[in-house]
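=== RUN LOG ===
request id: a7f3
mode: sequence -> structure
chains: 1
length: 193
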Amino acid sequence: MPFLMWPAEDAVANCRSAPKRRQIALALIRRFASIFPQVTYELAWEARSLNAQAWMLGGSRYVRLYGGLVRHSEIGRCGLALTLAHETGHHLGGIPRDPDINWMTWQGQADFWAARIAMPMVFGSNSRRMTLRGARELFHFQKHLELLMDGDEPDLSADCRDHIFRAAVANREMPSCAKMEFRRSFRCDFPAT
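=== RESULT ===
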């Protein structure tokens, strides 16, 4: 599904938790920015998109969290942290790259790098617990998105993404489901590491 057609929240949340969620997101952004200064992080609080995004502009790297995702009831601090780690992984996660967007690390590798490298760098000894909790939050959220997207499936299933996160925190290799999805999506083999 094209990014501009990504689902949005039904109505902007008007509840007591919104200011707290905003502060959590801003604190996470500051933390990631201090560890990965080569990436510019921002929060688009007013945006209703249920998403986050990595992009490049003029050679500079950017990551943006959208307010709809931050306010979503199924996403907590751990899910937001893992989302930031994943989006950072699109910039710093290495190969395999997305064959259609040559600067960007592929989705599955961005997940793997997020869990194995970024989360430990940002959260130290708490990273395993936070990654697995964040993965559960994102797993449930992705199931919700699959319904909203009306059959337009994401690059990786929620189940495969869960396997990727678990393999990364256990210091195992990329799971076979991810390698098969890469091969299916891009009609080429997953690069050897």
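=== NOTES ===
The first helix runs from residue 17 to 35.
Confidence is low (pLDDT under 50) at residues 1-6.
=== END ===
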